[in-house]
Amino acid sequence: MDFSTTIYDSTEDNNYYPSSKAAPTLSANAFNNFVLELLSTIELESLGAVYHRQLANFLPLEGLSLTDLDTRWVYGNSPHTCHPITLQVSYHSLQGTECSNVYYYFTRPLTIDQRQILEQCHCIFARQVAHAIELMRMRQMATKDVLTGLGNRSGFEQSIDRVISQSTRNHGTFALLMIDLDNFKSVNDNHGHREGDKVLVTVASLLTQSLRNGDEAFRFGGDEFCCILDCSQQQQLASAAARIQKNINSSHYLTKLQVSCSIGGAIFRDGEDAHNIFDRADAALYKVKENGKNSYQAA
Prior knowledge:
Layout: H1 28-39, H2 44-55, E1 61-65, E2 74-76, E3 83-93, E4 96-106, H3 112-142, H4 153-170, E5 175-182, H5 184-191, H6 193-210, E6 216-221, E7 224-229, H7 234-249, H8 252-256, E8 260-267, H9 274-290, E9 296-298
Parallel strand pairs: 8-9
Antiparallel strand pairs: 1-2, 1-4, 3-4, 5-7, 5-8, 6-7
Helix pairs in contact: 1-3, 2-3, 5-6, 6-7
């Protein structure tokens, strides 16, 4: 394991380290408590905070940075007067084994004993990071539609519950669009399910292009899609629906197959739950279907 830093020219000469008497060793009880709390934290977002707090109990830790994993995960301080040490964690991803740096900032140079403590603690932390990343990846797979890459129905249910909680807590709002493809059944009947899959992938891509940052698109099931939008006014919602329809109707591939879309929309109201806003948007969608398709209506 590489313990090189930007402070020392060599880590092999013990004269570069303060005396090991300058700091107490880590007791077995303290180490056990550290291990138990770290191993009981499997959520990647909170793992760094737990690790920083625990490590600061027995090392002169000023700050900890996991910005290679997420730019938001910085704990404590890292002033220029600190003594930095950079170590690595490795984990499996879809691309294979990847490595990220963990940046430690100490208030003073570590003794040899303290570096041994850091090595032990970092090894445990690195293993737990790998487990947490694997868990996060599995959860993402469970909420993703395999064909289109959009969120699936489970992902939609999790997201809408989250935005309802945020809106209720912050007195905010959001909007929901329900989208149903017109004439999709005839594509499957006349051209086969492989062509139907290609239509779904194309629509998913166009939906993603039509949305702004912060908006989310899902394949709810079959040829039904839905979008959770960060907007509060009917005009904004109508503009988003028009943008989606324009992109779909401008696709030469979809036009050739006579595929268009019908859209129903609703803006969240105080006191509603997920079923309420979904039913309103869905009812508006079916009114569009009854009145000739390829249009938009708000609840």
